[in-house]
Amino acid sequence: MISIAKQSIQWFNKGMKITGFTVKEKLVAKYLDNDLEKKETKSTNINILLNRVKINQKNEIKKKIYFSAAASTCLVLFGVLIF
Fold first, then answer.
1. pLDDT in tens, the chain (83 residues)
2. What angle do CA 76, 82, 83 make, to 5 degrees?
């Protein structure tokens, strides 16, 4: 191989230079492939989102009811113990 490269064979050297990619092109190609994958859009079902919101609202209402029940129970017990 080295002896061929040292010889002055013009058509062979030009052919090898043309077919090869440069380092810069290889580096750019890596990033271009990743960009194509990122551009894909994600679809979301609106019904799933609405159901999630309803479930979260129900859970918040339950937490508020439990807190008010616990607070009112504590107030009643505190009032009974003092009087």
1. 556 555 566 655 555 555 556 677 777 776 765 554 556 677 788 999 999 999 999 999 999 999 999 999 999 999 998 87
2. 90
